[in-house]
Amino acid sequence: AFQKDAWTTTISILQNATEAEQQLFAATTLKGKVPRPYRILRPIFHDAELTMIDHNDLSTQVPESDWPALRSQLLILLKKYAFGPKPVRVQLCVCLAILAIQMQTWKDVLQTVVAALGNDVASHACILDFLRVLPEEVTEGRKITLSVCGPLSPL
Questions:
Q1: Could you report the per-residue pLDDT of 33-53, keeping only the tens digit for each?
Q2: What is the spatial distance between Cα 128 and Cα 115, in angstroms, rounded to a whole number?
Q3: Closest CA to 20 of 71, 96, 89
Q4: What values do phi and psi take at 37, rounded to 5?
């Protein structure tokens, strides 16, 4: 129940806050609640094979069946903050990018974001922020962490 309340409260603050500090706090909190997927490589020495374990942390925060609703809510918030303040807008772009990476059923990411933001020239800065953040999250957000379960051998 707490997890759902935290999501609801954070989104509510973003919907209703009028001060930039409150908006940035809520956007940063929301970004922290949308965890990045990560991979851990663990060498298995008994059969000389590497096993890769994927962790999709978003599903521990929000059931996968609720991801489309989360996407809709993030798009609504992104449209609201498309004109600024820029730090809030960028945090929301990061949230949406992380969701897009994990939501494999979402095939038309760019078209959806552009359509949600509309044709207003002023929203172009928001679209550009999203286009900048998305590849950063693909490369930076999916860093591979090596976990060694025994002594290292020289290369």
A1: 776 654 444 444 444 444 444
A2: 14
A3: 89
A4: -75, 150
